[in-house]
Amino acid sequence: MKILFYDIIQLSNAPGSLRSPALADRWDGSSLVITLDRAREINCVGIGYTDAGKITMSFNPPQLQEIEGDAASPVYAYDGGTDLDPVNYDVEIESDVTVRDGSMEQSVMVAGNGLYRVIPVVADRIAITTDGSYIGRFAAGVAVDLPTAMHKEPGFASTGTYRKTLSGQVIPGAGGYAYRTVSVDTRYKINNAALSQIEAAYNGQIGLGYPYFLLFDKESRRLPFIRLYAKDTKTEEYVFQGGINKYLFSRKFEFEECF
Fold first, then answer.
1. Region of poorest pLDDT, from 9-13, 34-38, 190-194
2. Phi, psi (5° rounding) for residue 215?
3. Fewer CB within 10 Å of terminal CB in the chain, N or C?
């Protein structure tokens, strides 16, 4: 699975309603320019609660140069103006890509709340345009790829409480909502890069209960859904099981869908 731990939009000038973990706190509009605190690496975006079918993002990196590849499998190099080392990327993407005037424009087709991959870019500004009228939350950053064990535990739950009378009649519960759950296990797959993202996000995001944007790309054949906006039920004690011979850790994630 791919998971976004550290949301860099929380460090930007984006409206508070767009950064809020509650999707009901929606931002109303169809175009917006977000300025980050500094140039940062981005290889995914998180989208939650929107009426848009297509969202186009224009990333303004310090330098951008196409070095090889074609429209189906482009390879880009990014360099200059950041504390990141130059990196060459050759990735499978889900978006349409246009490069013009030093900016990279990518469009994603929205198919539910969750994580969406984009061609990696180092950018300090993101211009967003949509064909809708609101977005509940928009996130961006570096998605961590955590392979999971074969065993999966998807489920459905509800906060509604019904009542059964003495005569055996059922009175439906008033209020409440239904949501999805899933339990996945990462066996010695959490490395230093993943731990760095978790550590950066824990104090101001994960530890405060911010939900994650998830993409179950490699698990899609064994799960009834591919994307999810969910919280971990055990964020108060983020404990890892350590490896013996290598710097690798395990953890079982218990996700509950959020809105």
1. 190-194
2. -135, 115
3. C
- 130: β partners: 55
Q: How far is the C-alpha of 65 from the C-alpha of 90, rounded, in Å?
A: 14
Q: Can you tell me the distance from the alpha carbon of 219 to that of 145, in angstroms, rounded to the nearest whole number?
A: 12
Question: SS3 of 189, please?
Answer: strand
d(CA 103, CA 65): 10
H helices of 153-237, where? 192-202
In whole angstroms, give the CA distance from residue 171 to residue 216.
37
DSSP 14: -
Q: Say what the pLDDT of residue 153 is.
A: 86
**Is residue 54 packed enough to be buried (19+ CB in 10 Å), middle (13-18) or exposed (0-12)?**
middle
* Among the listed residues 215, 138, 149, 212, the one whose alpha carbon sits nearest the alpha carbon of residue 184: 149
Q: Which DSSP letter does residue 53 get?
A: S
Residue whose pair of structure tokens reads 């004690």 in the numeric block: 237
Six-digit token string for 44: 């995914």
Distance CA(233)–CA(183), nearest Å, equals: 10
The residue type found at 140 is A
Q: pLDDT digit string (tens) for 90-147?
A: 334 445 566 655 667 888 889 899 999 888 888 889 999 999 999 999 999 999 999 8
Mean pLDDT (whole number) for 212-232: 90
The answer to whether the beta carbons of residues 159 and 133 sit under 8 Å apart is no
Which CA distances in Å does 9 have to 107, 115, 201, 225, 233? 18, 14, 12, 26, 23
Q: Which of 112, 111, 107 is nearest to 58 (CA)?
A: 107
